[in-house]
Amino acid sequence: MTTFDRPDRRALLKGAAGAAALAGIGMPAISRAQSDVIRIGHLVPITGFLGPLGEYAQMGVKLAVEEVNASGGVLGRRIELVLEDSVNPQTGSAKAERLIERDKVAMLIGEISSATALGIGQVAQRTKTVFINTGANSDALRGQNCNPFMFHIEAANSMMVTAVGQYLKSEKMISGKKWYSLTADYAFGHDLFRVAKKFVSENGGNFIGEELVPTDATDFSPYLLKIRQARPDVVASNLAGNQITNFIKQYAEYGLQMPITGFGFDTAVAWGAGQDNFSGIWPLIWHHLVDNPSSKRFVDAFTKTYGKPPENQAWGDYNSLKLVAQSFNELKSTDSQKLAEHLRKGAKFDILKGREGYFRAYDNQMIQEMYAVRAKPAAKMKDKWDIYEPLGTVPEAGGDLEVLAPPKDGTCKMPA
Q1: Is the pTM of this model over 0.85?
Q2: Which residues form the Leucine-binding protein domain (predicted)?
Q3: Does the domain at residues 158-284+369-404 carry the CATH identifier 3.40.50.2300?
Q4: What is the mean pLDDT of residues 52-58?
């Protein structure tokens, strides 16, 4: 476990010597007085195929804590982060429970894996502790697995599909086209492919190949050979984390010319693939080129602090901490049940976009604008961060934000 609360960005490692013996969970004894800080738990994977995204998540939430504490904290108290590597669903759930029961955190922020987020959400419901999901996309988390203490600043898979789908239709890449997909073989990927296949089929496309890819796969040559033989019109990624990096890189190395797209995407994985390899049209919940004052301030502060621009995972964790701090101040309380009620009553927040966002009460999904981007030709990329150009905002200015939201199909039966 790592705690963090200082404007100078020092993270202090604390823990009992025997923590490693506790099944990798980590249960350090903390002697610091409780009354002078508000503890917030943060869990993301910082190892494994989602590790690069977890690193950006930690950078984003640390920057938010620095800014909040530098401006006087919350209710006259400092925010202290308790940072954990969620590792996998079993460990993530156990660490979430320890954060709440032992470390007495006020609420939880984070996660990227949909499977792990499900477990953390169950802990949150059982302990009546708010958990804001910043990276898990599965629609099931907003549907059959919804609960009144699990909130989602991250977009659902159906939102990602709808956002990029508008541009794929305008580019005439769906109707009458043959599609071939590669899908991450875990909860997120399965859910994303289900939603993507429905969208493509309803708009006149047809999948001629569907491959499930293990999350630890690094060699994509068997799949690329099948794609070359199948000769689809479009190749679609339903992959995650480092899978996307390796796929993009190896797709370019094989010299395949069929256009590629993706229904799930994080800028960090494209940066990892290199300027000469990135191509296609992709969805994003936010990107560092969003043109409004609050977004530009965030990009400038993040770049100054870390020497590189932020990406969408950093955006989610940064904004989650900021909106929690704002809510605690508005409530004049850090009570988690009061926080849940406040968020579910339509409180609006500046989330670095053209319009404010809010959590809708039906499923606790943040209702907000989204974006699509197109890869730049390598010759037009100014540096390793300059890899795409914005295609626009979904919905367009003045459009109903709910058009992007998961359908209210009755699968979310929110307990009272």
Answers
A1: yes
A2: 38-376
A3: yes
A4: 97
